[in-house]
Each structure stands twice: as C-alpha cells, then as structure tokens.
C-alpha cells in the first residue's frame, strides 16, 4: 500500500526536522521546506497528501501557500501551525480559507497524529471526488443525462442520431428512470431547441379536461370557458411536445390525437377552423406498450405512429456503474441549489448507494441525495445523513427477494419465482427470461401453463 505523503514547512530547522522525524515514525513519507516558496516548488514534484505548515515565514507565508495549494491541488489538506498571537488568523484560515486544522505551538503530538489520519482520509475522498467530476465533464454528461455505462452510451448514440430529425419517439422504462430527461435532451440537441418544450402528463389531467388541454378551446365551448385558450399543441408550435404516460390517455381521445399527428392540423374544442401546427411529439410510458394495446389502453395505430423510434431506458439497478457519477452530480447541483456545504460522499456511503436495489430508480436516488445534502452540516456525507429507510431492509426484502414456506412443491416455488420476476421487470418477458437464465420460449410455455391452470 502506498504511503501517504506529508510535507513539513517551517523556517526553523530544528522544528521542521523534529516534526519530519516524528511523522516518518508514524509511517508516512515526508519532505521538508524552509518557507512557502520552497514548499511550493517541492509540492510540484512531491504531490503531498497533507501539508503541515507554519504561518509566519519569509518570502511566502502559510496563508499564501494555502491559497496556492487550494487553487492547484484542491485535494491536498493543509494543517497550519501558529503561535499564540496568530490564533485568530489561523481560525479564519480554517473557517474561511479552507485549512483542514490549526495547532498552537507547542504541538500536542497525540492530537496531531489523530488529525493527520483524518486529513489523509479527507484528502482521499477529495481526490476521488475530483476524479468523479473529471469523469462527469469528460465522459458522463450528455444533455440532461448523466451516466457512462455501456447502456447509457448506446442511448446517447441513438439520441445523437435522431435529434436533428422530426420523427416521433416512444420512450419506455420503469417509473423514475428519467424518461422526461431523455425527452428534454432530444429537444435540447434538436434544431427546435430555440422554441418551446411543452410537457404534459396524461395521467394527471382529468378526462373531462384532457381534450381542451391538448387542443385548446374557444370562448363559450363549455361551462367555464370564458376566454379562448390555446392548447399544448399550439403552445409547442415549432418546438416539442412531450406526452408522458401516453397509455393513460382516454382511448376515445387517442383517435383525435392520431388525426392531429397525421394531418398536422387541429380544431379547438368548440371551434370550426383548422389550425396548422408544426410539432415534434415525444411520448413516454412505464407500461409495456404492446401489452397496453392488448389491454385496450393504447390504440394500435397510435402506437405505430408514435413508435417510429423506440428508446428503452434501463433501470438504475441494471447500470450500477453510473451511480457514483450520478451521486456526485446530484451532490454538486443540490448543494448549490440549497446553499449547503456537502461536497463529497464517504466511501462506505457510496458503497451502500451502489448496492441498494433502487426500486424507484434515479428519482429515488435523487430524493435520497437531496435528504442527505440538506441534513449534512459538513463537507462529507456520512451514513447518518442517509434516510433511515435505506437500512431497514424493507426495499431489499420486498422488492428483490422472495420467501418460500418449507416444505413447498418445486413447481410452485418455480411458479412464484417466475411471476415475481415478471412483476419486477414490469411484465417485460425478454428481461424476465434473461434474469432467470431461461429461453424466451420456455418462459412463454410456463406462462401458458399458469394461465390454463387458472
């Protein structure tokens, strides 16, 4: 294991030599410097994990060295040493300028040993944090999306290929996977990005208001229609309309939607004039669209019209490699939004986040990180800052495992396992077969037997 590197800076030869010998005895690699300028030169070659520096020195003092180090080596922790007269200044350096700690001379060596260990741990976390930010900026961000896994890179490639066109896109995936962010990214990268992006959630609008919401209405079209109102299609003219939860739209209204998509004209509720619209439609659903057709929730002709391009968003549990990138991105953005101090995530916390099953996908992850950012009163998010539900086992027990009574017939255990997995994958038979390591044909045969038995 590589030794941590400690740079000792003091203009008194006996002080820096004695401290260097002490720190070396603790198992660290050390270098020494007589003032801030020399320390700066040494640091460019030595790359110290921690710098222990006196404040008052010729040429460049401890405050100046601290400032330079933080600009160029932000993961290097700086511990300041001070005499009685400069304690106030040293405290300012810790509180305002980012020094890790300060000691009044003579140093309590036992306390220094403890602080040095903590500084090295913090430096390691900071270094990982900087690496994650570099990965984000170089590889992990595409429009509104974050992730560098193979599945996400394939998604980015497809979005790049279709962004410049005006074709309709159907986006599928479990709830919370970020279907809205995919839609926003397509719009952002398209020639329509200067015009409106209008989202509408088809499951959140009462059926009686849906037609008016989509196509608008004329004054007097119904009770309460006291003024003329443009609908989402007109508001999105020249831009993009994102229709979330399309399978929740009333089936009777889907025929009118299909007509607008095919003719690019609409008629407001209560109106008699055809209005031309130029709108790119992106639709999304967390249901299997073909099953929705079979269940009479979605018109087959509308599915064909929307499904020119199909994008399936993988659930978070299938792209766990993206979780560290997502976590750092969320910590950065949410800390800024809420004016909080959290900047990094402790390694054991990150491990917990990577292993968690995330039944609520990216949306659930964001809620967890937002909770942690708000309750964290320091720089590092620790285990105690996560919501208690992360550790009660409920999600792991209910979502990702199944319990059988003993004894139980083997065919009944198999039946429960198959049906539980099918529910877990959102009735996606291909993913269910892959998860169970059986062929799709075998799965269909098993399901047919179960249906015949009912």
Kindly summarize this structure in a few lines.
By secondary structure, the protein is an alpha/beta fold. Helices cover 49% and strands 13% of the residues. Residues 393-399 have low confidence and may be disordered.
Tally of helical runs: 19
The portion of residues assigned to helices is 40-55%
Provide mean pLDDT, rounded. 86
The CATH homologous superfamily of the largest domain is named P-loop containing nucleotide triphosphate hydrolases
Rg for CA atoms:
30 Å
| Overall morphology | elongated
Task: Please provide a written account of the structure.
The protein is an alpha/beta fold. The protein has four domains: 5-137, Response regulator (Rossmann fold); 145-312, Rossmann fold (3-Layer(aba) Sandwich); 316-397, Orthogonal Bundle (Helicase, Ruva Protein, domain 3); 404-453, Arc Repressor Mutant, subunit A. The protein is built from 19 helices and 16 strands. A five-stranded parallel beta sheet has the order 2-1-3-4-5, with helices on both faces. The chain is elongated, with a radius of gyration of 30 Å.
């Amino acid at each position: 294991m590589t030794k941590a590197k400690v740079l000792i800076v003091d203009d008194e030869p006996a002080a820096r030599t004695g401290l260097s010998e002490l720190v070396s005895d603790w198992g660290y690699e050390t270098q020494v410097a007589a003032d801030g300028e020399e320390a700066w030169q040494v640091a460019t070659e030595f790359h110290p994990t921690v710098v222990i520096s006196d404040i008052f020195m010729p040429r460049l003092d401890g405050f100046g060295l601290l400032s330079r180090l933080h600009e160029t080596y932000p993961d290097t922790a700086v511990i300041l040493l001070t005499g009685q007269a400069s304690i106030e200044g040293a405290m300012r350096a810790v509180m305002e300028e980012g020094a890790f700690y300060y000691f009044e001379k003579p140093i309590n060596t036992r306390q220094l040993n403890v602080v040095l260990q903590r500084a090295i741990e913090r430096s390691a976390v900071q270094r990982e944090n900087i690496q994650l930010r570099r990965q984000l900026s170089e590889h992990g961000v595409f429009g509104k999306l974050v992730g560098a896994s193979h599945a996400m890179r394939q998604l980015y490639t497809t979005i790049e290929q279709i962004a410049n066109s005006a074709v309709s896109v159907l986006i599928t995936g479990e709830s919370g996977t970020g279907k809205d962010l995919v839609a926003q990214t397509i719009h952002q990268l398209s020639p329509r990005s200067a015009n409106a992006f209008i989202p509408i959630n088809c499951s959140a609008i009462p059926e009686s208001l849906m037609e008016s919401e989509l196509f608008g209405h004329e004054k007097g079209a119904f009770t309460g229609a006291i003024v003329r109102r443009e609908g989402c299609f007109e508001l999105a003219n020249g831009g993009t309309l994102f229709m979330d939860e399309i399978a929740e739209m009333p089936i009777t209204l889907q025929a009118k939607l299909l007509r607008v998509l095919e003719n690019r004209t609409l008629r407001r509720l209560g109106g008699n004039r055809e209005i031309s619209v130029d709108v790119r439609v992106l639709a999304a659903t967390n249901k299997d669209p073909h099953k929705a057709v079979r269940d009479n929730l979605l018109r087959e002709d509308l599915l064909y019209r929307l499904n020119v391009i199909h994008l399936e968003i993988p659930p978070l549990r299938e792209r766990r490699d993206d979780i560290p990138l997502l976590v750092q991105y969320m910590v950065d953005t949410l800390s800024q939004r809420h004016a909080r101090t959290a900047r990094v995530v402790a390694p054991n916390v990150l491990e917990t986040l990577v292993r968690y099953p995330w039944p609520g996908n990216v949306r659930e992850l964001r809620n967890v990180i937002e909770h942690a950012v708000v309750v964290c009163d320091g720089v590092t998010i620790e285990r105690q800052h996560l919501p208690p539900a992360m550790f009660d086992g409920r999600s792991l027990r209910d979502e990702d495992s199944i319990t059988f009574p003993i004894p139980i017939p083997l065919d009944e255990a198999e039946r429960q396992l198959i049906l539980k997995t099918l529910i877990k994958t959102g009735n996606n038979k291909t993913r269910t077969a892959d998860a169970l390591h059986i062929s799709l044909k075998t799965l269909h045969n098993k399901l047919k037997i179960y249906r015949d038995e009912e």
